[in-house]
Structures are given as structure tokens and as C-alpha cells.
Amino acid sequence: MLRTATLLVPLAVLPSLEQRTLPVPVEIAPHEARIVRMAVSDDEKTLVTADRDGFVQAWDLAKGESLWIVETAPAPIAALDVGEDLVAFHHGMTTAGFLKLEDGEAEQGIGGTTAMHASRCLAIDPKDRWVWVGTDTGGLTRLTPGNVHGWSNRGLDNGKVTCLAMDAKGKTLAAGGEDGTVRFVDAKSASVDDKRILDLGSPVVALAIDPKGKSIAAATKNGQVQVWKTKGKKAELTLGEESSGIQAVAFHPKGTQIVTGGSDGKITFWDSKKGTVLGELQVTRDVVAVAFVDKGEGLLVATESESVGLWDLSDWLD
């Protein structure tokens, strides 16, 4: 049963929206410990969350009920993603694991496949062909679900790999680094494009690629988001002020909007072409992750709390 949200409280919005009823979120996907990671299936039917105690849960967004919850290991989940039929997770040290999206059963056991280095990020191919793990040693490990020996390493010269994003077709992987660069990898050949490097000037903390794969939004440690063409030479937009604390970013399914979430609890909706603010909401804790659902009419917000907030934007934001 869904409960009325108490932790997420909408505050001021722009004057153009003030005549509309503010959306009030409901809490879904409850955990006993604080949620640290969140991912949504490509068909927007299933929400997957992970908490600091090592539990992973799948939530049916249409029915509003839990599909399953399993304990992976008594340790926080450092990275999480969901593909077509698999959930991939990483505890941050050496072990990546796979769970079946349908029932939460372990694929190859809870240990899954082993990555060789510590990590804080991963990305799964939309068709579950590969899982990419960004390592703290500045490289990528490509794992093959179902084959414990199916892994390969690719070196990146951008320091610790801090975040990853896969395009909707599973053709290109973007890797953000501690040195403030974003590099691109051909997902099929695992080759690194050394001629295409985006220099953001500040460590990258979160990435999102637009649905058409033509633009990328990168949140950096200085608290801003830079929007680039994936084949561009310079940033086209810079969203937010320095030290605004943005640490989560997502594109609208139509690519027309970008939503960001910050350590100050502010959720901001931006025009992805003009960079203008379309609206703002406020929550009471740090935002961990954001994701549009329901064809862009719903928004999922994970904060440092024990549940996810689901916001209905259909009557509020154009």
C-alpha cells in the first residue's frame, strides 16, 4: 500500500506555474535502510532500488507493489543498473552480481562474475549482452553475464572512473572521470575513441545521454551540469551555479527537458535547448537519483531516505 510522503515536500515554483496545484509525491519501494542506488527498466515498468545494508528490491510501477526483495551481502550497494531481464550490482570492491529481473533469483549465484578492481559505477547493455564496470584504477571491465570468464579490460587515461551511461540502443558507452573528462567507448568492439574527449574541467559525478544519443548531460563536482553534443567540441549549456550541489541528472523521454537533483534537496527542471528553468521542487534530503517515468508525466526521486518519491507531473509541468 502506498503511503503519503512526509519526507518530500514541494516548495516554491516559478510564477508561471504558481496557479497550478503542486504535485504531492507518494512513497514507494520502502526499505528498512537508506536507499543508496536506483535504476528503472527501459520499458518503465520496473523500479529497482538498493540500500546500504545490501538489499535489492524490484517494484512494479503499474501495480504499486513489490515484486521481490533479496539480500545480496551485508554491505552497501555501490553501483546498480537494470537491463532487459537482468539486474546488475556491485558492492564496490571486487564482486559484481546479477539477479533475474523477473524473480530476483541469483544468476550464477550471488557472487556473479568477478571484476578485478574496486568500483563505484556500472552500466548494463539494454539487451543484457554486457555489463561495463568502471574501476578506481582508471579502466573499464566488460563482463559477459552467463560466462564467468567472459570479461575484458580497457584502459582509460582519466583517473578513477566515477560514472557511466549507456545510450538507448546500447551502441555507445560514456565514461566520466575524476580528471573531469568524458570518454566514449564502442560497446560492441570495446574500443575507446581517443579522438572524442569532452573536457569539463571538474570531476564528473553523474551522466545522462538523451534518448536520441546526440546530447550528453554531465554533472560535475563543482555542482553544475554541462550539456554537450556527444560529438561536440565545447559545452552548449551550463546549468546551475557553482557549488549548487547537483549530483543527479536525467533526460525527459522526448529529450526536451533535463531534470537535476542536488545535495541541497532541490529538484530543477530545465529546457534542454535553452537552459532556462521550467520549474523547481524541494525535498528535505540529499537527492541520490532522478528518473522520468510514464512517458515523462511521472518523476522518481531517490533521496537519503528509506523510500522513493513518485511525483505526478501531468497537471503541473508542460
Features of this protein?
five-stranded antiparallel β-sheet; globular; Methylamine Dehydrogenase, Chain H; 30 strands; 318 residues
Tell me about this structure.
The protein has a domain at about 35-200: Methylamine Dehydrogenase, Chain H (7 Propeller), CATH 2.130.10. Helices cover about 0% and strands about 50% of the residues. It is mainly β and about 325 residues long. The strands form 7 sheets. A 5-stranded antiparallel beta sheet has the order 1-2-30-29-28, with no helix packed on it. Strands 7, 8, 9, 10 and 11 form a 5-stranded antiparallel beta sheet that branches. Strands 3-4-5-6 form a 4-stranded antiparallel beta sheet, with no helix packed on it. A hairpin with a 3-residue loop joins strand 25 (about 255-260) and strand 26.
Order of helices and strands: EEEEEEEEEEEEEEEEEEEEEEEEEEEEEE
Strand content: over 45%
**Nearest-angstrom radius of gyration?**
18 Å
Percent helix: under 10%
Which residues sit in consecutive blocks of at least 5 with pLDDT less than 50?
A: 1-19, 109-115
* CATH architecture level-2 label of the domain at 35-199: 7 Propeller
CATH class label of the domain at 35-199 = Mainly Beta
Average pLDDT metric: 86
Spatially, the strands of the biggest sheet line up as 1-2-30-29-28
State the total count of DSSP E strands.
30
